[in-house]
Predict the 3D structure of the following.
Amino acid sequence: MPARRISPNQIVRLDSIPTDYTGDLSKDEAQERLKDLGKEVGDLQELLFAAGDHSLLIVFQGMDTAGKDGAINRILEYVNVQSCRVSSFKVPTPIELAHDFLWRVHAVAPPKGSVGIFNRSHYEDVLVVRVKQLVPEAVWRARYEQINAFESLLASSGTIVVKFFLHISKKEQEERLLAREQDVEKAWKLSVGDWKERERWDDYQRAYEEAIARCSTEHAPWYVVPADKKWARDLAVAEVLAETLRPYREPWLAQLASVGVKAKTELAEYRASLAQSA
Amino acid sequence: MPARRISPNQIVRLDSIPTDYTGDLSKDEAQERLKDLGKEVGDLQELLFAAGDHSLLIVFQGMDTAGKDGAINRILEYVNVQSCRVSSFKVPTPIELAHDFLWRVHAVAPPKGSVGIFNRSHYEDVLVVRVKQLVPEAVWRARYEQINAFESLLASSGTIVVKFFLHISKKEQEERLLAREQDVEKAWKLSVGDWKERERWDDYQRAYEEAIARCSTEHAPWYVVPADKKWARDLAVAEVLAETLRPYREPWLAQLASVGVKAKTELAEYRASLAQSA
């Protein structure tokens, strides 16, 4: 599988993980496969919704231009958007800054039956905050454990957590930034800040490596997704989602079957009572 | 001091803590003292508001009729209610139940500069939920650690946490329940449920003992407040609040002084520039 699942406590060297790995498939084959997987994920999401005991939280992180918006848009093509909520985390507002860093994130954690997608997340508080030294090291360092406790809390109440780092090369980022200047429709995304942030590329990579290593857990794993090729990225994400949800399929079906049997029994009793009183 | 602070990991035997302890003061003396302490707490709260780096979270728990409403009303007489928010936690709503048990609590955690008062709290999820066996033991047992991690998160972002268990005797509760039946103005509080819950008195006391023992930490201590006498209870609460906030007084004053010096300097510069241009 192109996406690499990081084991708990595994040391992460992003340099050594390719950004352009596409698996064994051609682009066309990959798109066919994505169609099948998307259908499967959509079906699994319907079961998640119907069974109502779990929720799914999908976290996206990555450097500027890594494709967070694109990857999310692709997911939204194959899930039912009605029970799905995308939350984007930008520079904190004053009221958000007046609370602990998990406050705004916890508020939009997905309720049972639904899917939550985070475009950036609480991880910014150990990434940009670390690189730009917005708080003392002791503060951001304590956050790894706070994040793990928080995600463990979500997991214990039925939230299935998957986290994606969209992994692009520095070269690919340059091309995408330059392309934005050419493309009138993407020019609104242009920002000098992106080029400035790019100067701290290595700092960000180190920050990502540590965050991913410290916060990849059994109940909330990190996946590093080669993201230089968008079609390979989208397929990798869909593969992980399908593999993550697949083990729940049988239990959900069994649960729904028993609900169905109960409903049928009640309906039969109701009809019998009508017949009797007629 | 009448309120007993529970040390981390201290074994708690509520039987052995008196419910009617009133200290060395008469009722009149206690009310005089409360006036002074209330003034002090009010002043400290103003500093907390002005300095803006901390918040205060006050948690109230206790058996039915223990006096949670009364104790909170008394605090509201001496704090500035403008920067204070009381949150009552009743039986969870469906949307609350669709999230982890800390979700609704985290949402109303006090922002910097303000005071939050909880009338019941996340502790209900290891109290009534345990006594009535609403979830399996493994689930509520994991919550002690989840609560400690959550309160530690709040503390790490500047929230000062104090937790009060209002400790009344079973006899005192009976008298208060009977009094409700006599008092037309309190009859709305009457509930057969209260008498039924009373049958599980011992189970609740055990649940409180374990919750208080496991979740009394340096950064979020539990206080057992003798609450048979309302005037002694209110004094004990005010004493704890004053003692909790007092150590922050000097740092807050120093911080405000430096803000003041800066503002004065800016003002002087502004006036000088006006004089120059005149």
Chain A touches chain B at residues 55, 95, 98-103, 106-107, 109, 111-113, 139, 142, 146, 149-150, 152-154, 156-157, 159 (CB under 8 Å). Residues 4-249 of chain A form a domain with the Rossmann fold fold (CATH 3.40.50.300). Residues 5 and 230 of chain A are 19 Å apart (CA to CA). The radius of gyration of chain A is 21 Å.
